[in-house]
Design goal:
This protein is mostly helical and about 220 residues long. It has 10 helices and no strands.
Length: about 220
């Protein structure tokens, strides 16, 4: 089973949002805001699918979360343009993460102490994404000979992912499932890009070891 570098949509970046487009959106032009959000929707939706608390999935759709985020973006975009504290996508991702946190507090606020004792917030994010990440990795590896073979690959990957340290599982999810670039991962984690690349390669190596596959030098790409 080959676990390679993050690919697919991360190799086809959405167009950079121009200042005029941002200014038009900040000025209340609905079409400009829709264009900005559409360019980033796929990756934001992947984030929500990976990190939405598993207990909420039957009640809350990813599209509902993103709709709430879009309303907040419309309200806060002028302040963002003035301050420019981070790249636009990472700001959108931050707002999305905050929305997910608010949903958890709204639905589980009265149980907060018990929930955190059972599963810390960060660990719940990662536990929620392990099954989806495993299916994604299995589907984007070499094509299995049958559906049963792909399911077996996903099962083995999920077991291996659950054995990884949370930091290793997080960076694999950021690169492979959420499809952030190495630069974006570095900004998200607050580390240098070289450190992010090394951490990702170490996590992949550990994952290969756990699934019983020797490290493949051909996959060593930053």
């Amino acid at each position: 089973m080959r676990v390679g570098r993050a690919m697919t949509h991360s190799d086809q970046r959405p167009p950079r949002d121009s200042d005029p487009l941002l200014l038009r959106a900040a000025g209340g032009e609905a079409g400009a805001l829709a264009e900005i959000l559409a360019a980033h929707r796929t990756r934001l939706q992947r984030m929500v699918e990976a990190r939405l608390d598993r207990r909420l999935r039957a009640r809350v759709a990813a599209s509902d979360v993103l709709q709430d985020v879009s309303l907040e973006v419309a309200e806060r975009l002028p302040a963002f343009i003035e301050a420019r504290p981070m790249p636009l996508f990472l700001w959108l991702r931050l707002l999305t993460a905050q929305r997910l946190g608010k949903l958890r507090r709204t639905h589980f606020g009265s149980q907060r102490r018990d929930v955190r004792r059972e599963t810390p917030e960060a660990e719940e994010f990662l536990a929620s994404s392990s099954d989806r990440l495993a299916r994604h990795l299995a589907a984007h590896g070499p094509t299995p000979s049958s559906v049963a073979a792909q399911r077996e690959q996903a099962r083995r990957l999920e077991i291996a992912l659950e054995q990884l340290d949370s930091s290793d599982r997080e960076i694999i999810s950021l690169r492979n499932f959420e499809q952030l670039t190495n630069v974006e991962v570095a900004r998200e984690l607050g580390i240098e890009t070289s450190a992010a690349s090394k951490r990702y390669l170490r996590a992949l190596k550990r994952l290969r070891e756990l699934i019983g596959k020797p490290d493949d030098a051909s996959d060593r790409r930053g």
